[in-house]
Task: structure prediction
Amino acid sequence: MSDLTPLRDLLDHHVVGHDEVKTAMLLALITREHIYVEGPPGTAKTRLAEVAAKGSELDFFFYQLHRDTRLAELVGDIVLERRKVKTEGAAPGTAGEAERIHQRIEPGGLLTAEVAVLDDISRAPGEALNVLLRILNERRFGAEPIPLMAAIATGNPMDDEYYNEPLDPANLDRFALQLRVSGLIQSGVDEAKTLIDRFASGSVVEQPDPEPVTDRATLDALNQQMYEVEVGTAVRAALLDVLRTLVLEFECNETNSLLTDRTFLVKAIKILRGAALLAGRDAVDLPDLAALSWMTTFRVPPEAHEALPRIIGRVSRQIQAV
Amino acid sequence: MAPSAPDRRNTELAAAFVELRTALGRVLVGQDDAATGLTLALLAEQHAYLEGPPGCGKSELAAALAALSGARTHTLVFHRDIRETDLLGDVLLSRHRHRGHERLRRELIPGPLLQAEVALLEDLPRSPGEALGPLLRILAERHALGQTLPLESAVATGPLEQVEAPIDPLEPGQLDRFAVQLRLAGLLTGGLFDEAAVLLEREAARQPARSAVPSRTFTTADAPPRRAVMSTAIRNAAQRAAVALQVEPRTLDAYHRLLERLRQRTADESASGDRLMSDRSFSSAALRLVRAHAFLRGAPAAAPRDLGAIRYMVAHRLPDEVQEDFDHILEELLGDPPNVTMAETGAQMPGAQSQGDENSDGAAASSPASDSWIDDQADLPAPPSLFGQPPPPAQVDPLLRALVGRIERGRIDPDTDPGGQPRGYRPLRDLDELIDADLIEALLFAEGRLPGAPRTFERKRKSAGGAVAVLRDISASMAGRLTVWSSQVVLGILRVAARRRMRVGYVEFHHRALPHQVGGRLLHRSYSRLAEQAGQAKAVGQTNYEAPLRTALEGLRGGSGRNRHVVLLTDGLPIIGDTTVRRERQLARRLGVALHTVFLGNGDCPPVLDDISLETGGLRFCGRPLAGGGLRLEER
Result:
């Protein structure tokens, strides 16, 4: 059985802390889902994405979004093809030449990458992102399938309106996994000390290029294995109960939440399978439901998101009791 | 009686569409109405508009229709920067030399969209006005660039209308081009948990199609490849047969009565939602759908029950309440014996009308009462949804107009912005802008053959800045009609803010300030949530100005920009806290926040309110209850 322990070790070697983001990134690579990480500057968001991509020897596309981002910058070059054709003139003796001009896109960037890191996605104008995010969703550009496995987007907190508008919630829905990170030092966790100690001892080389520790074939095999992970009746019933609680008790609706069928009825199954696989199991178990809170971060009101572990615990106990 | 040959042929053709309907119904769990609506649209050769929350399967259903029907298809994903050439086709640039002149002509060569039989228009509302106008005209005329299009149905998808959405919704007039209008609900948010369980089970059993050849690329593989259930010949024959179906006289009779009933219900101003009963849709398109409905169930002619097809047309044509009632209205109508006399005098059907009102619990029946003040708080109407809500009673208008004027001062809407929507063309001013210029003109310009500069997109964006905090007195003296009235003021301000994408804050206060925060922040853009809140206010306690002003100013302090406002709604003297609010006035001046004050009631306006407004450049309003139950609103 293939596993991603080497990649996880690599992430740990390069970045201190941020356990959840690391796990979620591996989950994204296995399930081939996209991930959005939001946090203040300097919390190793981009670095983690970069290490994950390079460590798995995947074709890597990095793009820093900005407020004037245009589609062509992301997907390749706009090409004008000009072809000469003969025409008849309207009046005698006016026969001339004509050109047929066809506009197309020469694939590049996102269309040829296996992992895309979209930095500062919240800075791009929401509207311009529409096509980008649709490509992410369908993994097709026009009729052509693209090799993209996972896009890792980062963003800054949407606290103020200085940088454009917040992401359109429908656009955020394209990222199945959504996490919020905070700085180690700012949140005063023990790992902050480790971080400082490591830099002080000189044991960290800043910005080294990670060596590949896994490859596409391993990830493909894991993806196949994922579909063999069993999702039993109890887990499905528990998932539905959690969702029911969010709708009925926490009043999540179309206005305040993004509780979409695509995400919570289709993708959630994949995420749960992936979580079980990462834990080395071949069937989804009730504790795997904890992965749901990586899906609700920006999709339900904060109070509902915070209550999720409690809801999952309660539902799991009820299911087990039956 | 043995069926005649044409009838048998029709039955076969109908069977193909029944199969299409069944196959479409299997694509999504719990969206049967949408499957039927789309089938009818294709059979009647009408365009369809599918809207729904993200991730409910709109695109999948539209794509399935195209694949299952065997039609030649083209999919176009709309986005901000879509151009005419994406819609229509390549450019043919011809040069003719004539007596020493060179004449350049540009024409368009029909592209794949113009050759499609079923066109899929994804995310249609994201398209700027520039591209949308020509497209909608083409859809209506089915004729472009001098040729008739093979187009049978265009299926467009769009998001559910929400005030929070950053895109401008299509107008009812634009949506009227789509005869069939379907609104999909999410299974989860629609509370359809049984259907959700079915979908979960389906997903848990899903196995990916394992390809024999390892490939670097893959699609999401969520949609299995679909085989067509009919040929183009059969599809077209069915369409011709369906439109040729007779409409029974009693069906027409019932249709007239249905239209009259809908018209009456729609005329009721208190209902929320779009209303547009255009001749175009309710003559030709509606009857085609009614015929298609009859054809689909194998009937030889359209019977009154086929009027049920109209329900797939109404999402943006009738107010929400009337839509919900549609099946009921129709049922009631068909239950009546087709009485010719009644139908002829449809406008004055006293019996039927009163019956309709009894059954339409709420909206229509309570409308006569809505003009008078409601003194019993228990009767406070539930807040209507913010979007498409009718304007508040005229009494609120002077205040809102003045406020809007203040909010708009110094603003140009929308602002020119390099990241905005293309809202028109202008000449190139800087070579940097070449990237956004008309490609052909840029090409000619680069070759030195364009007299003048190429045109480039003029991009504009609605200014999203600014903030308004509403402070609403809910002390005990505000009970009764003052509560209703101030709810209307709050809703009006929320609507103004939503339209301008301003952040809003809402603080109710009595002796304490009760801010309604979202995500721990006072200022946000969850307009609908606040609208809901504003309708639920209960009047208790005593008045304190200091606490709410302090709360609002603290909330506004972090923000930037000049366009910041506080609206204080109160009916009494402050009793608790600093009654002169000296520090708050100072802070407001320093932050450049305008404090507008609105005093309600018969008493004397506390002088401190005048001071607050005068010092900070805010508006001063007062509302005096009138003897007749109205309220006169004027500047103090």
